[in-house]
Amino acid sequence: MKIALIQMDVALGQVQVNQEKAKDLIDKAITEGAKLIVLPELWTTGYKLDEIDKMAESENGQTIMMLRQIAKDNQVEIMTGSIAEARDGKVYNTSYAIDSAGTIQAKYSKIHLIGLMEEDKFIAAGNKRSTFTMSFGKAGMIICYDLRFTELSRALALDGCQTLFVSAEWPTVRGMHWRALNIARAIENQMYVIAVNRVGKDVNNNFFGHSMVIDPWGEVIAEGSETKEEVIMAEVDFTAVDEVRSKILVFADRRPECYELKS
After folding, report:
1. Is-catalytic flag, 2?
2. What CATH number should be reported for the domain holding residue 138?
3. N or C end of the chain: smaller count of CB under 10 Å?
């Protein structure tokens, strides 16, 4: 399956500008034959948290409806990355999985909010993980800071997920962690990790790019640059997960009775 990672800069707080840019990059990906398209975190707004409530949209808002229409018109699947979602009087950092009929198959609101960026002061935390099945099999979504919490990715693997999608605005100062953690999640869970990060900068951070496709053996099969806006294309054989899991029986050899954790 040909997939496309949309690695883009984000104009802080300029929703329409970002929507138009993303649409152009998605059109390029479709022209190049992509059947699965993946976007980064908060790509419509960036971390303009002091005004995030004014820019937040419902799942029936302009951004998700635009992506649903693109998916339907072009028979492609889209992992939306995340947007600021208005729901129940709060704002959530939420990702959606859209199938090739333009239907929302799942949504996930970021569970772990990063105090370092004061996200927790402006955004409400999600409280449940999300799994879904599309043409490439069963998958799960996480967002940026979630990557540091091994329990969440392992729980998704135990739920049967064979692919983990990661959307992020990960800064350059912690770039080494981005690569190491994504690769580790792929190896330890014997799953594909498809991770899309933004590039560029805002008032507080430079962003690391290096969007990646990692196979269940831990091999990086596609990776973006650190600074360039680009569509990163990769050919992915999702059936490789079963082969890798049959070689090293990580899940069968687990000893969960020894892993009890304090809450």
Report:
1. no
2. 3.60.110.10
3. C
